Every structure is written in structure tokens, then in C-alpha cells.
């Protein structure tokens, strides 16, 4: 019993910063001025409203979606294709290609982020959605391919042999036999990659310097650093930034934890 | 593992499909990872300021300057402190939490969600809210200290050069502990309970059972987390950049923030690139060790 009491106290202490964000968001403007961090003393949606209109968080949210959804989809599709090929299809140059792809697991983004800035600039991709989508995609590919390859390697070999005897083409074996079996892995990878891209700060910070497009992470950073910070809308902005992550985690707890446990290689 | 009995027709079809599936992936990796990585090596041998169209080739001059840069050692020392404390604290707290949760069934989903959540929150939001907790006037930390009669310790945690690094570090520990906790908890499920019972019968007390029976069995996982933190510790950037930007008075400057400000604030592109490369090279031995370890763990069926 006392073990539960202790665990509840520790859980609430851990959650305290999140509770603080929610509490400050839901205060009236007047209350924020007097007592910004007192818990749940008043109730209103004024701060959310102001974050949305004055703070531009509506457009940050849109940009987050426009960056995260395509880059996640692209990374998962390419990783699944590549993972399957590396796991089950012999082709010339396979091991060299695989090593080049998973080299990304060893080399931090830090190593090449500066030259990538100038490369994007000369390609005309700096400050564009497509450029940042492609960079985000590439940062997810090493782990994704590594992960999906392991997943496809674990499927029994008899499966494709049986399908082949039945006269199925290689493409058909991939799409109709193997892909359905890989759905759990694809699901976990999708959730994990989505969170990574949603939370990514450095990539939009570096490659969207102009501010025409700005996702929630760099938007919140800019808002927090502004002159005479307005704490109420700032809290609301922080809430808008973390809410999709929290909801996704509570809804898909198993996939998220699994993804991060196997994603540990990424650091 | 294809057998040689695979007919040539099948093998050709497999090779065709394999290449087709891999080409888009390799193309993106080549353009957005391998090419800039090669370029990083090249940049570090130039004196590029981001504007000059034909930057002069300076050989190893950037690396020589790095070796004698007086700003580098304090930053590296901060990284090392970051790695030591940022590894030890989450491991100890996470292990204690995992032991506490071990075999708890009721409410375990809630505890897991609550304790793991900080690990997946966007860093910027984490920085914002911890900034409030550390607020010198209205922050909860100072209020709590005053409440227990330690008001003398109250300070502007992020603005005081003596406390800033520890304050950011404490936030990082808060985010990392949940991860360690979940990893260790899942490896505790594999601990042999018969051995534990035997130890209990032999009169081993709780601490002895943890030390002699539990710890040796989950040691590989401990090592994995250790290498993992070491890999990340050299290139730590986001949380410090967001909370203090390396200040006050460079008190929280680490290699990552120094590389960033060299390149993007002082326009010393080549120097920043050389530094970023050195940071990466520092981490690579640990990353290799980590990969080895994980391969071994998954062979033993303990990896995740």
C-alpha cells in the first residue's frame, strides 16, 4: 500500500511541469498577471485564443503538420522498401549500400548540419517546406531501414517460397505476402518517426531561418524569446506543442515505448 | 540466406526488385547525408565565412586552432560533467523507480505513462516550463525552498553562473530518467525469480539480493544505457540552447553550442564545422561499442 502511495507521489511530481503548463494555460489574463504559476486558480480559454490569434500558433501547428506528416510517410515507405530488399532480396552491391545507409546510426546530425545548410541554399531548398521535409526524411531513414530490415529478417523463409511455388511474382510476394505481416513493425516505426519529426528543433531552426514557414518547436522558441513575454499565451503555445505528443503517447503507449526502446540506437 | 537451388530466373527477378526498392532510399541518403558529410571534411580544411565564393584552403589550420582555443576546454569540461552527472543520476533514480515498480500490477499503466512522458516531450516546451519553475521571484523551486525553511538557497537558477549548468542538467535528468526506468523495468521482468527465492532462503536481505542477484542479471542493459548516454553526451545541444543559450557568461557552454555559435553567429563556418566533426568523432567509439553491445544483447534475446 505504501508502495502505491510513494509511486503516486513520484508520478505526480514527475507530471508537475505538465500540470503547470495546463494550469497556466487555463487561467484568466488577469490572474496570469498576478499569479502566473498558482495552480488552477481561475478558468478561461483566453490564453488559448490569444496564442492562436496573436501568437500565430495556428499557423505553427499547420506547418508542423505539413512538415511532419509527409516526412514521416516518406521515411516509413522508403525504409520499408529498403528494409525488405536488404533483408530478403539478394542484389549486387547490397552490403555496401546497407553499410552506407546505416552509417547514419553512427554519425550524429551535428557532423554535417553546417555544410547541409549551404547545400540547401545552393539547391534553392533553404526556407522551403520540401527541403525541410527531405532533410527530416533523411534523418529517419537510417534507423527506419535498420529496424524494418530486422523485422523482415524475422519472417519465416517458407512463406515466400510457398508463394513463389504458387507462381506469385517477386513484387506480389512483397506487397501481398510480406507487407501485411509487417504491419505491427510499420506501425511502431510510424509512431516513433512521427514523434521524432514533430519534436525536431534543430532542423527547422537551421533550415527555415526566414520564418515564412515555422513549426511549433521553433515557433514556441521564438515566442518564448520575444520582448515582454506574455506568459499566458506562452503556456497555451507550449500546451498546443505538447498536446499531440501526449495524446499519441497515451493512445498508443505500447508502440511509442517499443519504438523508443529499439530507437535507442539513435541517441 | 538464399540457397543455391534458387533458379536463375528468380534470382534475376529478386535482384531487379531489390535494386528498384533501394534506389530511392540510397538517393536521399546520398544527397542529404553522405554528400554533406563529405563536404564537412572539405569545409573543415578551408577558411569559409559563408559568403566568400572562393574560400582559401588552409589545411589543418582549423584543427590546430581548436587544439589551442582557450574557450574549448571549459566547454569540454562542461560536456564531461554533463555526461557524468547526466548518466549517473538517471541510472540511479531510474533503477530505484524500476525496483519500486517491480511486480506492481495495479495502476502500472498510469505510473508508466507518468514517468515516461517527460522523455518524449518536445525540448522547447520542456525548457519553457522549467524556466518558470526556476524563476527567481515566482518560481516553484524557490517557493518550495522557502516553504521548508531553506529560503537562503533561493536564487535565479538559470541566471546565476554557479547554478545554471546544474539547473539545466536537472531538467535533462528529469527527461532521461523515464527512459532508463522503462528499459530497466522491462529487463527486470527477465530476472530469474528462482534465484531470488533461493537467495532469500539463504538469508540474503533486500539490498544483498539487489546487489548480488538482480544487478548481475541486468548488467548488459545497464551497459547499453551507459554507452547510449555517452554517445549523446558529446553532442548535447537542444536543451542547453533552449534554456540558456550557453550563458550566463558561458557557464553552460558545451561543444555543441560553441560549434553552433561559431558557425551561425560568428560566421566562422569552417571552424564550426571542424568542431562539429571533432564532437562526432569523440562519440563514434561509444556508438560502435553500443552497436556491438546491442547486437550481442539481441542475440541473447534480451534486447528490445
Explain the overall architecture.
The complex is a heterodimer of chains A (267) and B (304). Chain A has one domain (59-227, 242-266): MetI-like fold (Orthogonal Bundle), CATH 1.10.3720.10. The mean pLDDT of chain A is 92. Chain A contains 14 helices and no strands. By secondary structure, chain A is mainly α. Chain B has one domain (62-299): MetI-like (MetI-like fold, Orthogonal Bundle). Chain B has helices spanning 8-43, 61-68, 72-101, 108-120, 123-133, 140-147, 164-188, 193-201, 206-234, 238-243, 255-264, 269-299. The longest helix of chain B has 36 residues, at 8-43. The radius of gyration of chain B is 25 Å and the shape is flat. The relative contact order of chain B is 0.12. The interface between A and B is large, with 93 and 99 residues.
Secondary-structure blueprint:
The complex is a heterodimer of chains A (267) and B (304).
Chain A: H1 2-25, H2 29-34, H3 46-53, H4 57-88, H5 94-102, H6 113-123, H7 129-153, H8 157-165, H9 170-181, H10 183-199, H11 202-207, H12 216-224, H13 231-251, H14 253-262
Chain B: H1 8-43, H2 61-68, H3 72-101, H4 108-120, H5 123-133, H6 140-147, H7 164-188, H8 193-201, H9 206-234, H10 238-243, H11 255-264, H12 269-299
Helix pairs in contact in B: 3-7, 3-9, 4-7, 7-9, 8-9, 9-12, 11-12
Amino acid at each position: 500500500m505504501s508502495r502505491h502511495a510513494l509511486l503516486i507521489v513520484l508520478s505526480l511530481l514527475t507530471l508537475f511541469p505538465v500540470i503547470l503548463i495546463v494550469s497556466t494555460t487555463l487561467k484568466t489574463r488577469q490572474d496570469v498577471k498576478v499569479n502566473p504559476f498558482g495552480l488552477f486558480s481561475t478558468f478561461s480559454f483566453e490564453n488559448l485564443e490569444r496564442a492562436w490569434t496573436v501568437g500565430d500558433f495556428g499557423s505553427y501547428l499547420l506547418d508542423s503538420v505539413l512538415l511532419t506528416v509527409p516526412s514521416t510517410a516518406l521515411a516509413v515507405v522508403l525504409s520499408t522498401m529498403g528494409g525488405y530488399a536488404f533483408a530478403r532480396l539478394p542484389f549486387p552491391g547490397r552490403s555496401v549500400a546497407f553499410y552506407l545507409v546505416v552509417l547514419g546510426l553512427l554519425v550524429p546530425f551535428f557532423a554535417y548540419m553546417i555544410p547541409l545548410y549551404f547545400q540547401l541554399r545552393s539547391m534553392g531548398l533553404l526556407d522551403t517546406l520540401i527541403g525541410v521535409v527531405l532533410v527530416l526524411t533523411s534523418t529517419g531513414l537510417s534507423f527506419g531501414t535498420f529496424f524494418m530490415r530486422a523485422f523482415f529478417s524475422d519472417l519465416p523463409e517458407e512463406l515466400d517460397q510457398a508463394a513463389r511455388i504458387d507462381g506469385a511474382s517477386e513484387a506480389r510476394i512483397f506487397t501481398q505476402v510480406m507487407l501485411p505481416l509487417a504491419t505491427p513493425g510499420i506501425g511502431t516505426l510510424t509512431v516513433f518517426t512521427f514523434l521524432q519529426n514533430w519534436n525536431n528543433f534543430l532542423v527547422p531552426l537551421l533550415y527555415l531561418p526566414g520564418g515564412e514557414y515555422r513549426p511549433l518547436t521553433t515557433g514556441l522558441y521564438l515566442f518564448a524569446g520575444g520582448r515582454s513575454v506574455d506568459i499566458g499565451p506562452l503556456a497555451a503555445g507550449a500546451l498546443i506543442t505538447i498536446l499531440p505528443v501526449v495524446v499519441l503517447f497515451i493512445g498508443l503507449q505500447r508502440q511509442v515505448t517499443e519504438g523508443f526502446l529499439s530507437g535507442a540506437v539513435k541517441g | 540466406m538464399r540457397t543455391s537451388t534458387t533458379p536463375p530466373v528468380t534470382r534475376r527477378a529478386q535482384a531487379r526488385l531489390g535494386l528498384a526498392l533501394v534506389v530511392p532510399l540510397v538517393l536521399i541518403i546520398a544527397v542529404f547525408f553522405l554528400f554533406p558529410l563529405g563536404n564537412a571534411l572539405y569545409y573543415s580544411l578551408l577558411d569559409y565565412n559563408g559568403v566568400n565564393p572562393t574560400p582559401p584552403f588552409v589545411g589543418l589550420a582549423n584543427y590546430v586552432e581548436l587544439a589551442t582555443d582557450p574557450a574549448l576546454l571549459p566547454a569540454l569540461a562542461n560536456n564531461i560533467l554533463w555526461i557524468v552527472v547526466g548518466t549517473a543520476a538517471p541510472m540511479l533514480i531510474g533503477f530505484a523507480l524500476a525496483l519500486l515498480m517491480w511486480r506492481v500490477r495495479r495502476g502500472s499503466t498510469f505510473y508508466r505513462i507518468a514517468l515516461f512522458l517527460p522523455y518524449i516531450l518536445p525540448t522547447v516546451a520542456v525548457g519553457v516550463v522549467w524556466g518558470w519553475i526556476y524563476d527567481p521571484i515566482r518560481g516553484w523551486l524557490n517557493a518550495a525552498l522557502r516553504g521548508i525553511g531553506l529560503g537562503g538557497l533561493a536564487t535565479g537558477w538559470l541566471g546565476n553562473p554557479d547554478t545554471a549548468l546544474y539547473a539545466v542538467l536537472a531538467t535533462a535528468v528529469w527527461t532521461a530518467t523515464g527512459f532508463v526506468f522503462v528499459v530497466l523495468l522491462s529487463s527486470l521482468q527477465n530476472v530469474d525469480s528462482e534465484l531470488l527465492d533461493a537467495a532469500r532462503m539463504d538469508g540474503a536481505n533486500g539490498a544483498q539480493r539487489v546487489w548480488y542477484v538482480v544487478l548481475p542479471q541486468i548488467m548488459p542493459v545497464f551497459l547499453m544505457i551507459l554507452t547510449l548516454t555517452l554517445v549523446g553526451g558529446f553532442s548535447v545541444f537542444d536543451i542547453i540552447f533552449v534554456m540558456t543559450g550557453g550563458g550566463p557568461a558561458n557557464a553552460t557552454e558545451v561543444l555543441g553550442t560553441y560549434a553552433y555559435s561559431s558557425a551561425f553567429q560568428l560566421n566562422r563556418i569552417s571552424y564550426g564545422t571542424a568542431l562539429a566533426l571533432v564532437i562526432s568523432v569523440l562519440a563514434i567509439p561509444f556508438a560502435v561499442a553500443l552497436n556491438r553491445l546491442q547486437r550481442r544483447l539481441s542475440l541473447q534475446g534480451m534486447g528490445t
